[in-house]
Design goal:
Length: 454
């Protein structure tokens, strides 16, 4: 132990051993394992960020070029070519599916991984099951066997694996599902000192969805993709069951543009909607946080009254595998750190539980957009593709998400029940719905449509 003690003391973090003598052998062993995993030079750099009092920069901001959700006739041919290209890549098995589910879902306040949350408007279908069905639907439509990469974190990995096991991997062959973990980082107090959650336990938090890139590399997922001929990653978040993860138009536009990383966006509801927008930041593509947009720019509009900064980020991307390899290969990924100030439940030096102001550090996947030389931004319709489960109630809650799923299912099927559910493997369009054998179950909660053979 002396080595570890010296290292922490030299980094100004010697206080983590304060309760050491009170720990039994097993607790000391598990605490030692946690301490050994801490990247002390990184912790020192993060602490220095907190101490940095220099005034924030004011970069030049500009709207991005956006491919419209309803393209005019002049783009018809481009759309057809892109859709054909995307379908070709899907059919050839060149697209892998990457779900990020390592977050803590604190706003939802659900006891378990967010993906286990039951979101079906009529059934108990979980978010994970919903995503599985969408990916399988793509496999059926384009005739390939999909591979699914699921990122967890130490905060929910064991529970997620158990949930996948208990649910038969939602119909996937377990060999086609690759679960991998992102890194965790210690939270710091306002002075940059590592916070303890308990006498022998660090306060650790997932390192943000930007951690996906390094985790894809370190877990061997990138190598697995390469060995299966996967060239493009369809990246999506666990909380949006409306996401179209195998959108041939999106994949094709991205591929034909030679883009390294592309994004879907939705039009902002209005200037006041608190959502990050994609835009150019000093000339480089990125996500402009709501709070970083001045009131003037928030309301700036074009000649037709449309907001200039309107490209609401929904965190759905297509990313080229070799781009992730290039970003992570040299070990200098170095995405910017974002600081989240939180009240942390922790243990004081006297051993009492307390709440203290602290900070968590995260990197964000959209900061990789700045490293692209070519990138497509495709607008999609919110009512068709985006209704996330973020909060326990109110906006972006299970209630609003179920209503969105019902609205889509009702429009496709023509059903008029107050809750309608449509298995994505049956149909994602009205044309598919009418052309396929269907089973309809009426339940007290509503109506469910499934493929007849299921
Ligand atoms: P959010 O930023 O909405 O965070 O994540 P969250 O953890 O789900 O919820 P809150 O903020 O605690 O309420 C958006 C997506 O990114 C994933 C989440 O699992 C979700 O799919 N994510 C977030 C990660 O995979 N890792 C992270 O470190 C953070």
């Amino acid at each position: 132990m002396p080595d570890l003690r010296d290292q922490f003391a030299a980094a100004g973090q010697g206080h983590v051993f304060h309760h050491w003598e009170s720990l039994d052998g097993a607790a000391q062993a598990s605490f030692t394992a946690q301490l050994e995993a801490v990247d002390l030079p990184l912790v020192s750099r993060l602490g220095a960020l907190l101490a940095d009092r220099s005034a924030p920069l004011s970069p030049a901001l500009a709207p991005p070029v956006v491919f419209p959700a309803r393209p005019g006739a002049e783009r018809q041919q481009e759309c057809e070519e892109a859709t054909a290209r995307g379908a070709e890549l899907l059919a050839a098995g060149k697209v892998g599916f990457v779900l990020v589910a390592g977050g803590q879902g604190s706003r939802l306040g659900f006891d378990g991984p967010k993906g286990a949350y039951e979101i079906g408007p009529v059934t108990t279908k979980s978010l994970f099951e919903w995503h599985a069905a969408r990916i399988q639907a793509a496999g059926l439509r384009h005739g390939f066997q999909p591979r699914w990469y699921v990122m967890t974190s130490a905060a929910n990995d064991a529970q997620t694996r158990a949930f996948f096991e208990a649910n038969g991997h939602f119909g996937f062959d377990p060999a086609d599902v690759f679960l991998f973990q992102q890194d965790m980082l210690p939270a710091l107090d306002a002075e940059g000192r590592i916070v303890l959650a308990g006498p022998g336990e660090l306060f650790l938090a997932p390192n943000g969805h930007g951690g996906t890139l390094a985790a894809l590399q370190s877990s061997g997922a990138l190598g697995d993709m390469a060995s299966h001929g996967i060239e493009q990653l369809s990246y999506f978040q666990v909380d949006n069951p409306l996401g179209r993860h195998a959108d041939p138009l999106f994949i094709g536009l991205h591929d034909l543009a030679g883009a390294e990383m592309s994004s879907k966006v939705v039009a902002k509801r209005d200037a006041a909607e608190k959502v990050g927008v994609l835009g150019l930041i000093d000339g480089a593509l990125g996500c402009i946080e709501y709070s970083d947009l001045s009131d003037e720019l928030r309301h700036a509009a074009d000649g037709e009254g449309k907001l200039l900064f309107n490209a609401g980020n929904i965190a759905a991307h297509v990313i080229r595998r070799d781009f992730v390899e290039a970003l992570t290969g040299g070990g200098d990924l170095d995405l910017p750190w974002h600081i989240a100030r939180k009240q942390l439940k922790c243990v004081s030096e006297s051993g009492a539980q307390e709440e203290r102001a602290g900070v968590k550090f995260e990197t964000f996947i959209f900061d990789a957009l700045a490293r692209t030389t070519s990138s497509v931004v495709l607008e999609v319709l919110r009512e068709e593709e985006f209704s996330p489960v973020k909060n326990a109630e109110g906006s972006d809650s299970p209630e609003t998400c179920r209503a969105s799923l019902t609205a889509i299912a009702a429009a496709i099927s023509g059903a008029t029940a107050s809750a309608v559910e449509l298995d994505p493997r049956l149909a994602e369009t009205a044309a598919e719905f009418t052309s396929r054998p269907t089973t309809a179950d009426e339940t007290p909660r509503g109506v469910v449509f499934r493929p007849a053979e299921a």
